[in-house]
Amino acid sequence: MNILLTVLAVLLVAQTIYLLHYKAQIRDIGNQLHFIMQNGSFKQVNTQLRSREMMTLIRGCNQLLDQQKKADRQYARKNEEINATIVSLSHDIRTPLTALDGYLQLARQAEEFSDKDRYMEQAKSRIGQLSKLIDELFLYTKLQNPEYLIQQEPLDILASLQHNLFAFFDDFSRQGTEPELRLPASSVRVNGNVHALDRVFANILSNYFAHGTGTLSVVCEEEAERVRICFANRLRKGERVDTERVFNRFYKEDASRGVRSSGLGLSIVKSLMENMHGHAEADSEQGMFVIRLIFVKARKE
Questions:
Q1: What region holds the Histidine kinase domain (predicted)?
Q2: 279 torsion bin: left (phi>0), alpha (psi -120 to 50), beta (else)
Q3: Regarding the domain delimited by 74-143, which CATH topology (the fold level of the hierarchy) does it fall under?
């Protein structure tokens, strides 16, 4: 009997010590969490106890901490993007406004009607530049709304492509080049929206005239369920393109070169393509810059 009581007493003492240690570990976990929250520490919670329940608790705490750290990094990145956006917007809007003000003052001071007309034409050009920027901002903002959907229908993508190439006829003439086309002889139908396609092609062509050189190559290839259109051109001497960022909003490889661009053109291309369930990608190698558009092929009726 005495032996049994002794064993029970020892077990009770051991259980009490274990519970006190368990309680101390829980208190220590609470202190660790408090320290992490107060100091923004990147350390993780640990414990000396290795029981199944305690390790489950530790893993849960560390998973929550990892998620919070990830959310904090995303918030910081978004905040940096917002600040960069504000800086870029203020620069892009201020530049044509400053030029507009200067030309209007020159027109007001000019004595000859020919000079007044020339300055007013320059002012009109800056107004058009500003209007285009605001239009692209408005479209980009709409495209960022998940609820904004583009109405799609089967259409001939070659007709849209050729229409937009012809719209840049004067630009090709001034540059003294002609696009090199490799297109199917018959029509190619994809699911899309004619207005969205016009904007996609126009933005890519505008990007070519702003940053490219030499002959523009345009190739259309049909696959079983996809249609691929590739635009390829040489980059200007010294020009570099970060293909990982080229579709980012306000991306400009070198803002100091004075190219009149909002930096939204290719970002709009990517957003429009995704809204039409397609895809846009870019590649740069050996001085060549390539944009590939992948469309969903329309089903034959």
A1: 88-299
A2: beta
A3: Helix Hairpins (1.10.287)
